[in-house]
Amino acid sequence: MSFALGRRLSRCLLAILAAASLLYLYFCEGSFRASQLAGSGTFEDQVRATELEPSNGDYWRQLGEILLFRQNDASASLEAFHRATELNARDADAWLGTAYALQVLDRSDAERDALAHALAAEPRRLEVIWQAANLFAVLNDHEAVMEQVCVLLAHDRARSFKVLDLVSRTFPNVTDVKCPGEEAAR
User: Fold this and answer.
1) Which of 30, 77, 164, 176 maximizes the CB count within 10 A of its CB?
2) Average pLDDT, stretch 60-74?
């Protein structure tokens, strides 16, 4: 009798384990499929990835980049970037994408706000600082450009010639350009 009970119990446990495994595979398959789609780089696959994993901010940012840079649809990209920043406010690339879309839409105040968010999200990432400096230059915000340029000159030697080129294009009289603390060093 105990042998039959043990057999039933093991069959029941095996059935529960099989059901749990199938549920796990069902839910993981969606994430795996979304990851595969997002990696393809096509618009249709990226849309499908956001449908499969709507809570993944990276997929929304990638969709925004495709919409902005390949489809030339700044308004639609802004919606995707907005969703990405809602899901992950610390994604500086999503904030930079937002700033680029806002630049195309000629919304400079909102662009400045997006740049502030990008710099706050990753204040030490030199690529973020470089892109922000260039976007501030387009906005003709000399003070913000200078702030970013000073950081880049101090910490990004590989990009120093590009930074100096940006300075020469942004400021008519380069000799007037001074970074904070430069006076004390002289």
Assistant:
1) 77
2) 97
